[in-house]
Specification:
The protein is α/β, with parallel strands linked by helices. Helix content is 28%, strand content 25%. It has a single domain (3-201), classed as Maf protein (Alpha-Beta Complex), CATH 3.90.950. The protein has helices spanning 12-22, 48-60, 91-94, 103-114, 181-187, 189-197, and strands spanning 3-7, 27-31, 68-77, 124-135, 138-151, 167-169, 174-175. A seven-stranded mixed β-sheet has the order 2-1-3-4-5-6-7. A hairpin with a 4-residue loop joins strand 6 (167-169) and strand 7.
């Protein structure tokens, strides 16, 4: 029997990460039905956990009886005092940078600009993810994952999404965008959060 949960995201990148995790378990992860027609809540939390909880509770009410999982994740750069943090997806738009048509590219270009002149050893950063599972407006489980790395001065790799081309893993001598999906799942913040959540779901 296949266990099913719905993901409250329209991000194809996040859905790919979720589905990669599902392959290793008797689990089906699908986007929440009619998600695009649902007015999105304002993500005004000050932490990843607050935003993930807000979204999980809100969206679970649109799928009565179903298990809904929502995440909030992003990049924390030490030289920028933890920015962009919870504003990772809106980093460039917060500063009026870019046209909004290619947010990932605009965010990456702004990050490169902000770290110009910062020595390699001081370009430390971490990806962080918090996942929350809810049903009928009630939080059931929370899990988190993180991965440490360095921010490159220029993009490397064509895979992944978001800041992946700039997020460098010294132990592998590769950026996150240079990893195959299976390897990325075992190392990424989202993969680690999923791995931590599944046992709480009895999987």
């Amino acid at each position: 029997m296949c266990f099913r949960l719905y993901a409250a995201t329209t991000s194809q990148g996040k859905l790919r990460d979720f589905r990669a995790a599902a392959k290793a378990h008797a689990l089906a992860i699908e986007p929440l039905p009619n998600l695009k027609a649902i007015l999105a809540p304002e993500e005004d939390g000050l932490t990843f956990a607050a935003n993930a909880e807000l979204k999980a509770v809100y969206y679970s009410r649109f799928a009565p009886g179903e298990l809904v999982v929502a995440d909030d994740s992003g990049l924390e750069v030490d030289a920028l005092d933890g920015a962009p943090g919870v504003r990772s997806a809106r980093f460039a738009s917060d500063f009026g940078v870019g046209s909004g048509e290619n947010t990932d590219q605009s965010n990456n270009l702004l990050l490169i600009e902000r770290l110009a002149g910062v020595p390699a050893a001081q370009r430390t950063a971490r990806y962080r993810c918090v996942l929350v599972a809810a049903r009928d407006g009630q939080i059931l489980h929370t899990a988190a994952g993180a991965v440490k790395g360095l921010i490159l001065p220029e993009p490397r790799g064509s895979g992944g999404f978001g800041y992946d081309p700039l997020f460098f893993l010294p132990a592998l001598d590769r950026s996150m965008a240079e990893l195959d999906p299976a390897t990325k799942l075992t190392l990424s913040h989202r993969g680690r959060a999923i791995a931590a959540l599944l046992p709480k779901l009895g999987l």
